[in-house]
Specification:
Blueprint lengths: L4 E2 L2 H15 L3 E2 L8 H17 L2 E2 L16 E7 L4 E4 L5 H5 L4 E12 L4 E12 L7 H12 L4 H10 L6 H13 L8 E3 L4 E4 L1 H6 L6 E3 L2
Parallel strand pairs: 1-3, 4-6
Antiparallel strand pairs: 2-7, 5-9, 6-7, 7-10, 8-9
Helix pairs in contact: 4-5, 5-6
């Protein structure tokens, strides 16, 4: 009996590249006429995980339990090029500043239907890996770094956090300000909108993939 390899981030990215290329050539009857982005995402995620489980040992998480690959701290997102965004669980305002707490593997597709064959096809245009240190909100992290460069203090940071309408009270804002002064956040490249669930937008990471440390163009 052959022993499966342990999945790590390097292998995940390599397999994501291979899978994106092969899936882009695949015509799926089950996708024909499907316009619901969630259904398309679920189809792709299940198929990719099934493919990985045939080769590797890993614990496959799911959206209910948190992230898709908890062993290696990676969540997978599948989104349409028409509006490259998705939601993720809200934990605290700190995620906008210091990152989500895990890395992201994002697949961006363009879906087409073939009327003759009654099949749908997902052309994977971009596959991007974002290290967890880069998963903060771009405007928030760049604004905070400017304040620090301008010799700003905790009052300046607290005022900025309130201007950004981050969901936090005064005590939490002061705690976060101290942490920022002690350890300034890396610049994040997501756009994260405030909501009951964070709304993550990916246009910037598509632009920056391969040009910025921590944002890898997988395919």
């Amino acid at each position: 009996m052959s022993i499966k390899n342990i999945l790590d981030i390097e292998k995940l990215c390599k397999e994501a590249c291979f899978f994106a290329k092969s899936e882009s050539k695949h015509n799926a009857p089950s996708l024909f006429g499907v316009t619901d982005g969630k259904a398309v995402g679920t189809y792709f995620e299940h198929k990719f995980k099934k493919y990985l489980l045939s080769k590797y040992d890993f614990s496959a998480g799911n959206s209910a339990s948190g992230i898709d690959f908890p062993d290696i701290g990676v969540d997978m997102k599948v989104t349409s090029i028409k509006q490259p965004q998705s939601s993720c669980p809200y934990k605290s305002a700190r995620q906008k500043i210091f990152g989500l707490g895990y890395s992201l593997l994002v697949f961006v597709y363009d879906k087409t239907d073939n009327e003759k064959t009654k099949t749908g096809r997902l052309n994977i245009l971009h596959s991007v890996f974002i290290e967890k240190s880069r998963t903060g909100d771009y405007q928030t992290t760049t604004g905070l770094r400017k304040i620090i460069e301008n010799q700003g203090n905790s009052d300046d940071i607290v005022a900025f956090l309130h201007e950004r309408m981050l969901p936090m009270d005064e005590i939490e804002a002061e705690k976060i300000a101290k942490d920022i002064l002690k350890s300034p956040p890396e610049i994040g490249y997501l756009t994260i909108s405030n909501a009951l669930q964070w709304r993550l937008q990916y246009n910037r990471i598509i632009e920056k993939a391969g040009k910025v440390n921590g944002i890898l163009r997988v395919h």
